[in-house]
Automatic annotation (TrEMBL):
Residues 200-268 form the Cytoskeleton protein RodZ-like C-terminal domain. Coiled coil: none annotated. InterPro entries: Bact_Cytoskel_RodZ, Cro/C1-type_HTH, Lambda_DNA-bd_dom_sf, RodZ-like_C. It holds the Pfam family RodZ_C. Keywords: Membrane, Transmembrane, Transmembrane helix. GO terms for molecular function: DNA binding. This is Cytoskeletal protein RodZ. It comes from the Bacteria. Gene3D superfamilies: lambda repressor-like DNA-binding domains. The chain crosses the membrane at residues 120-142. CDD domains: HTH_XRE.
Amino acid sequence: MTTPSSNTQSNAQGSFGAMLQQARKTKQVSLEDAAAELFILKRHLQALENENFADLPQAAFARGFAINYAKFLGLDPVKIANSFDAAYPIDLKSRSTNNIESPLRPMGTLQRDTHNRIRFNPLLIIAVIGVIILAIFLFRMVSNASKENNEQPVTSSEDISALEQAQGAAIDTDANGVGASGSALNLGGDASMAPATLDVKLTDAAVVTITDATGSSLIAGSQNAGNYQLSGMPPFNVQIDNINNVSLMLNQEAVALDSYATGTQASFELAP
């Protein structure tokens, strides 16, 4: 005769996993739809509902997933977070803490699926976007030149080369060569594709987890008091367990953590 697993027993007692599963079914949302909406892997959502902690990433990440899932389903995120903390195995929590070799690990990566997934080089994407912007700029430049030639004759003394036109057509660039729109050519490029800087200041110990758009972990786990300077591709996924001990600046601009917080905890996406 088989005995029910600890996960089944926990769900039967109304644990956070059972609450998540019941709320999802009541809302008539599939795991696939929830995963697509939250940008969280389906297997991680399934592990949360089953309270299968071994299949989840580090405690800080898993806790953030549970909070985001609760908000999506209309549950109390603080109640879910507290239930998650109470149910999380002590041995896994200590193992997760021991895996953090230093307070700041900019080169770490989130645990993620490697099957059927295409990896993109961020620098290659930026280069492709730059080529597209340059092509659009040259096309507009040639079109404008053609219109001017049709409207009135241009004397030889006014002729300029295509290179000179390209050099003189950059719009409103500042001293750093960046236009008001955030791109070097000011043609409406996506400023979020450019790297951004984060300045994190801790007045006391706190659990801070930040990942960028490429999946790189910029900082993860319990951190000591101090100043941390990070850089990565926005948008950033930010999770903080106690905002009273943390202040955050994005590209030298202060971020109002209170507007993202539930109690003293905050879990949100941040972009310039």
